[in-house]
From TrEMBL:
Domain of life: Eukaryota
Matches recorded under Pfam families: EH
Sections of the chain in a coiled coil: none
PANTHER family noted in UniProt: EH DOMAIN (PTHR11216)
GO terms (BP aspect): endocytosis; endosomal transport
Protein name: EH domain-containing protein
Residue span(s) of domain EH: 47-107
SUPFAM superfamilies for this protein: EF-hand
InterPro entries attached to this UniProt entry: EF-hand-dom_pair, EH_dom
Gene Ontology terms: cellular component: cytoplasm; plasma membrane
Length: 107
């Protein structure tokens, strides 16, 4: 479960929307569509591989973000992954839910 203290930044939400829009080939038009959109595992893997992070780190990020182990990420879960990716890219070694409470300025 995503911590109730987690609040994605506008930058994280904007990036998540761009990723979802691209993954859905531009079919997302309304705010309702964006909120209901999911990122499938194949699209997530493609995105994650662009981060230059190790498979082990990406596995931890996926585990933290994919609540319920569904095999896809909701918009909210995608913002969790984006935040953790930012922390990992800046050298944070202990990726955990506590980092979700602290916005990261590097996306």
């Amino acid at each position: 479960m995503i911590t109730s203290r987690f609040r994605p930044t506008e930058e994280e939400l904007s990036l998540a929307d761009k990723i979802l829009f691209k993954a859905h080939e531009g079919r997302l038009k309304r705010e309702d569509d964006k909120a209901a959109a999911n990122l499938d595992a194949e699209s997530a893997v493609k995105l994650f591989l662009t981060t230059q992070l190790s498979p082990q780190v990406l596995s931890v990020i996926w585990s933290e973000a994919d609540t319920g182990e569904k095999g896809w990420l909701s918009r909210q879960e995608l913002t969790v992954a984006l935040r953790l990716i930012g922390w990992a890219q800046s050298g944070e070694n202990a990726l955990n839910r506590e980092l979700l409470e602290k916005a990261h300025s590097r996306l």
